[in-house]
Write a structure and sequence with these properties.
TIM Barrel, single chain, 45% helix, alpha/beta, eight-stranded parallel beta sheet, globular, 12% strand, Sugar_Epim/Isomerase, 10 helices
Amino acid sequence: MDKNKLYRLGMYEKSMPASLTWKEKLETCKNTGFDWLEISIDESDEKLSRLQWDIKKRNVLKKAMIETGIPIHTMCLSGHRKYPMGDPDKKIEQKSLDIMKQAIDLAQDLGIRIIQLAGYDVYYKKGNDDTRDRFKTNLKKAVEWAAQAGVLLGFETMETAFMDTVEKSMEYVGLISSAYLQIYPDIGNLTNASLLYHVPVVDDLKKGTGHIVAAHLKETVPGKYREIPFGTGHTDFIKDITCLKDLGVRMFTGEFWYTGQEDWKNICANSAKFLRSKLDYVFEK
């Protein structure tokens, strides 16, 4: 870590072709201007299979981190979209708990500090009192496992009404009341939520004072949450980063996607430049 930096900027794994080796991904992260890589554990079988890696596969990634000098400090755990902790199907519910326990074990083994949790009770089904109660019960188990491993869990503010604001996230943070459950908000998602609820993003962020461990920096447009190029949407990066800085946040992750572009490396480098221009403006004032 550069001791002179006032903040650190992470890179979302899905910003690069999935075909790259771990060493290639980490080298790209380093060469395009980022400080660490955020590993993705999404709902695909390929990504979920990482949770069952044997020691040999884990060591391949550890070796690549050492050789490149780029760590993996955060995990985006969106696999719960397909296997949510509030699902009424007992088999799916158990799968969600297996995913959670394995993700914490992998994080502990790789030196990952923060797991970003998807704020869903259910995703592909309609939620109700039962799904919310199941979510609360299983969330408590997840936080206990995280506490044993010394790994932080942070809710992502999502694109569904269940947990699309910091205020809603804080209901569960307060309910569990553990240092190991915090908030890892997405300012792009919050920007769209602000249009729905007529609450400025910074006002919502302030409701998480003392509980925000990192933030996703993402571009959105009204009603759309993914694959919007930086600088073409309505996210107010300067205003939101200023608020996050005041709240003590120093870890930021650029969330953007590789969608087959031939110039993807340039997109990665330009995304880092765009985000650092906003971060530098705020932190060097």
